[in-house]
Write a structure and sequence with these properties.
The complex is a heterodimer of chains A (about 500) and B (about 450). Chain A is α+β, with helices and mostly antiparallel strands. Chain A has 24 helices and 7 strands. A 4-stranded antiparallel sheet of chain A has the order 1-4-2-3. In chain A, strands 6-7 form a two-stranded antiparallel sheet.
Chain lengths: ~500, ~450
């Protein structure tokens, strides 16, 4: 059986070398077929013995050199020069097959390329995957004392926050699956889309973790990105527009991710249940605090598992009027409220949160949210406006399905949540305990958002939309998508789609 | 080394490691606009106390006096900092001089001239040194010495004898016979630069992690317990870092070498403990002591408990054997301003002067410490290495009042020579580990 496997591999090597003209080094072989290095070398040796001609072989000679100074030398030589090179060694030198290839390249470094590409792919795998690069399992020496710390990166699934929202849902799923498969595949090539995702994930691992909610909903990334459009901020809330979906979302999400433990009622309860534990401890807490309405909660549950809803109910003390006013409009989900968080933080957050539908239609969501916002009844806006500087822009952030939370908060008071509790799907970006930026889509009450907005206000430079404190909190744009963030910052609801383009054009000029 | 299944038949040996780098970390220092006089003062103070105690045994009869207290014709001993006046040393003020006399700058890599002279300086004053015994080509600015001589009529101090601080005391070398354990020193990887050979570096990594070679070789490799990379690991194209704003495609060109290095270090760190020191071309601060390369540069490798980012100079102890090393700036600077037969002699001199980088802060960038001089060598190392040199050289010196012995190693640039240095911890013997990948005849 081992022999059949060997034979099969030998044939594969032959096809790789002759047909695809690839350089097959023992290291590449071992990583590709999950065999140890010594085994791979033996295999290559057999292969060389079987195929005598037509292929170039590179041998690795190692031994002590002749000479006065003791020097251990390792050298790669081609077949023809083997005998000559052996003379240089003092005594016996060990000869091993290093690689086989169709022809010897002029630049020896070409031999290294295939191996390095493989190493790079292994390197880019999600953080918690323990692949053969990371644990060095195929070498001949075991080092039991080596430990790799993966605590900091809890998330396995790669949620490409910054990628265009459209493809994200799918990629996420892809990422999840391949990871499971890797262990089992005989040829565990890590060439997945996840690579890109992985990168994102790495930087936002916490985010992904936090977006456990997303996992539940199967829309991890999308939500985040969609959150962006939720921004209710006066003008910009919608800018989070679909185009910049992911990045925008993350941008806002960050802001929203830093919810201050506001008194604002956040209807996190529902959301909390939805979210993974890691995700927003704060947000969860906040939401829990905030959740006052059963209705809302129920609604939220219905609505989106991922998003955190903001429950504005706690604002009763402050925003009684608003509450009353907005209550009928609850179903609207004023994302604007969310954004309202006290500051004039960019509405990004607002846009992020509420409006975007949880469904994975990132683009659609964003636009929808903006639309929603636009459609929001003025009453809400009025009430909201009264309370906060945020424009009642609308519920752009809030997905229709969301329970109408009128997050009036914003404006001057941090928690000045407007009366109607609005849940907004907000893209919150926060810095987790490890200092990483985590973007997640959460349902937030205005208070929360407001608080976040406050926090983030300082950070966000581009908060055009001040409405959503949350959005503003997402100000510290995710590192990953600085460009996107910028665009999101500018996003206004209707012009969301445009902004990214404008941004791109400008950057093009800058480069020139 | 046990024999297990065919997969992992060998176990890597381990060693005890203790880092002594706290003195080189600048965390607690604050910059309040101070200038460099304070570090010179601290150095003088530190070494003068030491020299006074030595002088009493060296010349018990001769009085010790300050520079201002010199009397003509009277033999005495003075202690102070040497200053070497060099004609060819570039000075920023030359740019502002009214008359632009042609400065004969013949050799930009070495500024020595026959007209250089030495001056001894302490808090009270300075005096020019004369006499044949003290040769300006050997000394550099910044060394604290004791001189025995007398003042001449011309106002010079004619030197009769020189007393340097000498080698510091050394902890005892653990002599019990142990198994062979090796530590590998390598420097100048220059990953990402056009003249580095990635295949050679990959061979190096494969060898020390145990992929390459047959059983015998892998068993040798399993005895390697530690790797130290002494600077210049990254070769970012120089043309890019010139202060201009970078286009985004250039940004990735700058980041690529670091990512590549991270992947390579990941492979090493997964197998054995690794120390990486910053060098003159690395993304670290310029002035000595260079602070450790930031962990964020190595997201993949920094997750391992075997990965350690260290300062330059780097001092550590393995199995009670003390190592001290730099990435080469101190010796390279000495080479510009003084003369010696080889790099190892420069290194020996720094040990005798008991100071790793005497030319700092004069010609070598240095942090303006206020009350200490971290480059003062308190305890003599057993192995003293310097990275990024032109060739591999090594020697054992036995000197000092207690018969201290030190293994001096000059580690060559790996990207040029393909040579790393392996030191056996049992007896401090070292040999070269070289890699060749030239195919064409």
């Amino acid at each position: 059986m081992a022999q059949t496997q060997t034979l099969a591999l030998v044939e594969e090597i032959e096809s790789l070398v002759s047909d695809k003209l690839q350089v097959v080094s023992y290291k590449w072989l071992s990583r590709n077929y999950m065999i140890s290095s010594n085994e791979a070398k033996r295999l290559l040796q057999e292969f060389v013995e079987k195929h005598d001609g037509g292929l170039e072989v590179v041998y690795a000679l190692s031994g002590w050199l002749k000479g006065s100074h003791p020097s251990y030398h390792i050298r790669l030589v081609t077949g023809p020069k083997l005998a000559e090179a052996q003379q240089e060694f003092d005594g016996n030198c060990s000869i091993q097959v290093y690689s086989v290839q169709a022809s010897i390249p002029k630049d020896p470094a070409v031999l290294w390329n295939a191996e390095f590409i493989q190493a790079e792919e292994l390197f880019k795998q999600p953080w918690s995957v323990d692949n053969c690069l990371r644990d060095n399992r195929f070498c001949g020496i075991s080092s039991s004392f080596v430990q790799r710390n993966v605590d900091g990166m809890p998330v396995v699934a790669a949620t490409p926050l910054t990628k265009a929202s459209v493809g994200i849902g799918q990629t996420k799923m892809n990422v999840l699956q391949p990871q499971k498969n890797i262990a089992h595949d005989t040829i565990p090539r890590a060439d997945l889309k996840s690579e890109d995702v992985v990168k994102d994930v790495k930087s936002e691992s916490n985010g992904t973790g936090s977006t456990g909610v997303h996992d539940q909903v199967n829309k991890p990334s999308e939500d985040k990105e969609k959150v962006v459009p939720a921004g209710k901020k006066k003008a910009q809330s919608d800018k989070s527009g679909s185009s910049t979906g992911g990045s925008l979302a993350s941008f806002w999400g960050r802001a929203s991710a830093k919810p201050k433990p506001s008194s604002l009622p956040v209807e996190s309860s529902n959301a909390v249940s939805n979210h993974s534990a890691t995700e927003d401890a704060q947000a969860s807490a906040r939401e829990a605090d905030g959740s006052g309405d059963d209705d809302n909660q129920d609604v939220t549950v219905r609505r989106s598992s991922n998003r955190k809803r903001r429950v504005v109910f706690d604002f009763s003390d402050e925003d009684e009027d608003v509450v009353s006013l907005s209550s009928p409009e609850l179903p609207k989900k004023q994302s604007s409220q969310d954004s309202k968080q006290k500051d004039n933080k960019s509405s990004e957050k607002a846009t992020l949160n509420s409006d975007t539908k949880r469904e994975n239609k990132p683009m659609a969501k964003e636009e929808k949210s903006s639309d929603e916002k636009a459609n929001q009844p003025f009453q809400e806006e009025l009430s909201v406006i009264n309370k906060c500087t945020n424009n009642g822009k609308s519920s752009s952030e809030k997905p229709q399905s969301c329970a109408p939370d009128i997050s009036v908060n914003k404006d001057s008071t941090k928690n000045a949540a407007p009366g109607s509790p609005k849940r907004r799907k907000v893209m919150k970006t926060r810095i987790d305990e490890r200092g990483r930026e985590v973007t997640e889509v959460v349902w937030e009450g205005e208070e929360t958002e407001a608080k976040k907005a406050d926090k983030v206000a300082t950070k966000k430079s581009e908060n055009n939309v001040s409405t959503n404190s949350v959005n503003s909190s997402s100000g510290p744009a995710t590192k990953k998508t600085p460009a996107v963030v910028n665009t999101t910052g500018k996003g206004s609801k209707k012009t969301v789609n445009k902004d990214p383009k404008q941004g791109n054009i400008l950057s093009f000029f800058k480069r020139v | 080394m046990g024999m297990d299944s065919e997969k992992n038949s060998l176990c890597r040996l381990q060693c005890s490691y203790a880092s002594l780098d706290e003195v080189f970390e600048i965390g607690k220092e604050t910059y309040r606009g101070q200038q460099y006089s304070q570090i010179y003062f601290a150095r003088l103070h530190l070494m003068r106390t030491l020299l006074y105690s030595l002088v009493s045994q060296w010349k018990p009869q001769t009085p010790v006096c300050t520079v201002l207290g010199l009397e003509q014709g009277k033999e005495c001993v003075i202690v102070g900092t040497l200053y070497k006046h060099m004609k060819l040393k570039p000075c920023i003020l030359d740019e502002y001089s009214k008359e632009r006399s042609a400065v004969p700058l013949v050799r930009p890599h070495n500024f020595m001239h026959d007209d250089d002279y030495l001056v001894l300086e302490d808090e009270s004053g300075r005096v020019k040194l004369g006499g044949d015994l003290i040769s300006p080509s050997v000394f550099v600015t910044g060394i604290v010495v004791a001189l025995h001589g007398k003042e001449t009529g011309a106002g010079d101090f004619s030197v009769l004898e020189v007393l340097e601080a000498g080698l510091p005391p050394q902890i005892e070398f653990p002599l019990k016979s142990r198994e062979d354990k090796y530590i590998v020193l390598v420097s100048g990887l220059n990953v990402g630069s056009s003249d580095s050979n990635p295949l050679q570096l990959q061979l190096f990594i494969d060898h020390i992690t145990g992929h390459l070679g047959d059983e015998k070789e892998q068993s040798i490799a399993s005895q390697i317990v530690h790797v130290v990379i002494a600077g210049n690991s990254i070769g970012i194209p120089r043309g890019l870092v010139n202060g201009q704003n970078l286009a985004s495609k250039d940004l990735s060109r700058i980041a690529e070498p670091i990512k590549e290095l991270d992947i390579l270090l990941n492979q090493i760190a997964a197998g054995l403990p690794l120390d990486i020191m910053p060098g003159p071309n690395d993304p670290a601060n310029f002035s000595l002591p260079q602070q450790p390369l930031h962990r964020c540069l190595f997201p993949g490798s920094a997750a391992y408990n075997t990965f350690r980012s260290c300062t330059n100079p780097h001092s550590f102890e393995i199995d009670n054997i003390r190592f001290l090393g730099t990435s080469g700036q101190n010796v390279d600077d000495l080479e510009k301003y003084s003369d010696a037969k080889d790099k190892l002699e420069f290194m020996e001199r720094t040990l005798r002067w008991r100071h790793i980088a005497p030319t700092a802060p004069n010609t070598l960038g240095c942090y303006p410490y206020t009350d200490s001089d971290p480059f003062f060598i308190e305890s003599c190392p057993h192995v003293y290495f310097v990275g990024n040199q032109n060739k591999y050289e090594s020697r054992v010196i036995k000197a000092g009042s207690e018969g201290q012995f030190v293994r001096l190693i000059s580690v060559p640039k790996f990207s040029e020579s393909g040579v790393a240095v392996v030191v056996n911890l049992r007896d401090l013997e070292c040999h070269a580990l070289s890699f060749g990948t030239q195919f064409s005849s």
